[in-house]
Amino acid sequence: MDTRPAYDSTIDLLRSQSLSSLVQREIERLILSGEISAGEKLTELGVAERLGVSRGPVREAFRGLAESGLVRMEKNRGVFVRTVAVEEADEGFAVREALEEMIGRALAESITEGELGELRALLVRMEKAAGQGSVDAYSELNFRFHDRLVALTGNGRLAGMYQQLVKELTLFRRQTLARSETLAVSLAEHREIVEKIASRDPMAAGRAMAAHVRASRERMHESRAIDAGEVDEERETQREEGST
C-alpha cells in the first residue's frame, strides 16, 4: 500500500504550522513595536505580500493572534489590531502588580549570583539607552529585563500569564506618547528592583516590583493627560486661526 500521500500531507501540515508560527511571531512583533498601529485593519493579502508568504499561513496566524488577544476578528468586517481602553489597562496594571510582587518574592529566595550578573548587565545597557534619550532602545531592553525576571522564576504558568498581560498593556501604551524625560526615573526603579532582589529579602523585593508597576501606571495616566492637553491646545489654535 502506497502511503506517500499521507506522508506528504503530514509534512505539508508541519511546514504550514511552522510557517504560520513564524508569521504570527512577526505580526506580533510589528504590532508590539508600533509598526502596525492599534485599531489598524489587517488583510490576509496585505500581510502576505508584506511578509512574502501565501495567505494560508497568515490566516492561521490571525487565529492565533485573536486567541492571544492582540487582534479581533469581526464578521463581515475583517481583522483589526485590538485597542485597549483605559479601564482595561487599569485592570491589567492591577493584575500585573500582583504578579510582579510574586516574581520579586520568588527571585529574592532563588536567584544566583550569575543571574544577578545578567540583570546588572541589562541595567548597564538600559543606562546607556536612557543617557542617549533613546526611547525605542530603552523600551526593548525594559521588556527584555522583565521577561528575564519572570523566566528566572522557572514557573511556566506564571510566565505565560505575565507575558500575555504585558502584551495587552503594550498595545495600550503604544497609544500614548513615550517620553524620554521619564527614562531616568524608570531606570532608578529598575536598579532598586535588582538591589532588593540581591538583598535576598522577599518582602522588600516584592514591594520594589509592585511599586514600579504602580509608578508605570501613574506615568501612563500622566502621559494621557499631557496628550489630551496638547490635543485641546491644538484644537483651540485651529479655532482661533479659523476665526481670523
Write the layout of secondary structure elements.
Blueprint: H1 4-32, E1 41-42, H2 44-51, H3 55-67, E2 71-74, E3 78-81, H4 86-110, H5 113-131, H6 135-152, H7 156-173, H8 183-198, H9 202-243
Antiparallel strand pairs: 1-3, 2-3
- Element order: H for helix, E for strand: HEHHEEHHHHHH
Taking all residues together, what is the mean pLDDT?
Answer: 85
Radius of gyration: 22 Å
**What is the structural class?**
mainly alpha
Beta strand count: 3
List the strand order in the largest sheet. 1-3-2
Largest sheet: 3 strands, antiparallel
Number of helices: 9
Kindly report the name of the CATH homologous superfamily of the largest domain.
GntR ligand-binding domain-like
Low-confidence stretches: 1-7
CATH architecture of the largest domain: Up-down Bundle
Give the helix level as a range of percent.
Answer: over 70%
Q: Termini, distance in Å?
A: 87 Å
Q: What is CATH's topology name of the largest domain?
A: Four Helix Bundle (Hemerythrin (Met), subunit A)
CATH class of the largest domain: Mainly Alpha
Shape: globular
Walk me through the structure:
This protein has 244 residues and is mostly helical. The chain has 2 domains: 8-81, Winged helix-like DNA-binding domain superfamily/Winged helix DNA-binding domain (Arc Repressor Mutant, subunit A, Orthogonal Bundle), CATH 1.10.10.10; 86-236, Four Helix Bundle (Hemerythrin (Met), subunit A), CATH 1.20.120. Helix content is 77%, strand content 4%. It is built from 9 helices and 3 strands. The chain has helices at 4-32, 44-51, 55-67, 86-110, 113-131, 135-152, 156-173, 183-198, 202-243, and strands at residues 41-42, 71-74, 78-81. Strands 1-3-2 form a 3-stranded antiparallel sheet. The relative contact order is 0.11. The model is unreliable at 1-7 (pLDDT under 50).
